[in-house]
Design a protein that fits this description.
282 residues, mainly alpha, MetI-like fold, 2 domains, 74% helix, 0% strand, globular
């Protein structure tokens, strides 16, 4: 006895199964459409905020361990009214920008030389790998001895947190350029420096820009520690405001500064990504 059309069970073929999983967007390394990517991202943030509200407003976690969103917003509003929010943001941002400038002008040339010339890589690789393994917090005493606890000390501290990663990432970007391009350049008579300027640097530029974005994020993770050094009302940054919140037992202020730092870091990463997609997308 045959089944009616409505009663038939349809078992997907292998091709149909692959098509179903592809439509569900769970294929390995598949790129999501921009709108779907943004939608899933918003859902993720909403779930995180919902969980936060349940834990904080529901009293499941102590307010000192996890303040409510209302408490954090109140703390930020209080700091803004006292003029202790925007000036610290500008000071911290300016410190990161200056440190990033020095990371680029020092780290990129060294990384290019290491990626292009094996003797330079052999000479510096072990030194850079060794120093990179030293916690930046352990360099606080050296920073103090070298330049003191003023503005220069803060910038140097942030600089040391990212410079070695910049060198390594740039070196890998140069080394990752296809060897075929170098061979063609040599065949047409290009010199070593012409190969660096006209082949390796253009070929590695997208990855070098990604390295700049990575180091920007790294430096924002060190801003709090850097601004613990000799902070006062005249040079107060976001790290100093956070430290004041710790001393005064104001968890809303502490969390508020962490959220502000995360937002600024994310926005700068987003801007760098837009620039990368617009001008360095090859």
């Amino acid at each position: 006895m045959s089944l009616s059309t409505q009663d038939k069970v349809v078992y997907p073929t292998a091709g149909g199964a692959r098509k179903w999983f592809s439509s569900a967007r769970f294929s390995i390394r598949e790129t999501l459409p921009p709108r779907l990517d943004a939608t899933i991202g918003v859902i993720g943030v909403a779930v995180f905020l919902l969980l936060w509200c349940v834990l904080s407003y529901g009293g499941l976690i102590s307010p000192f361990a996890l303040p409510t969103p209302t408490n954090i917003l109140s703390s930020l509003a209080y700091l803004y009214e006292r003029g202790e929010l925007i000036p610290p943001i500008m000071r911290s941002f300016w410190r990161v920008i200056r440190a990033l400038f020095f990371v680029i002008i020092i780290g990129v040339p060294i990384g290019v030389l290491m990626g292009a010339f094996a003797p330079v890589d052999a000479f510096l690789r072990k030194i850079i790998n060794g120093v990179k393994a030293v916690p930046v917090t352990g360099l606080t005493a050296l920073v103090t001895l070298w330049v003191g606890l003023g503005e220069s000390g803060k910038i140097l501290y942030i600089f040391l947190g990212a410079i070695f990663y910049m060198i390594i990432l740039v070196k890998n970007a140069i080394a990752g350029v296809s060897e075929d391009y170098t061979r063609v350049a040599l065949d047409v008579g290009a010199s070593r420096w012409q190969i660096i300027w006209r082949v390796l640097l253009p070929g590695a530029l997208p990855q070098i820009w990604d390295a700049i974005a990575v180091c920007n994020g790294i430096m924002w993770t060190y801003i709090v520690l850097a601004e613990f050094l000799n902070s006062n009302a005249a040079n107060l940054g976001l790290g100093g405001v956070l430290n004041n919140g710790l001393r005064l037992s104001q968890p809303g202020q502490v969390y508020g500064m962490l959220i502000v730092i995360a937002i600024i870091s994310s926005l700068t990463d987003f801007i760098l990504h837009i620039i990368r997609r617009r001008w360095f997308n090859w």
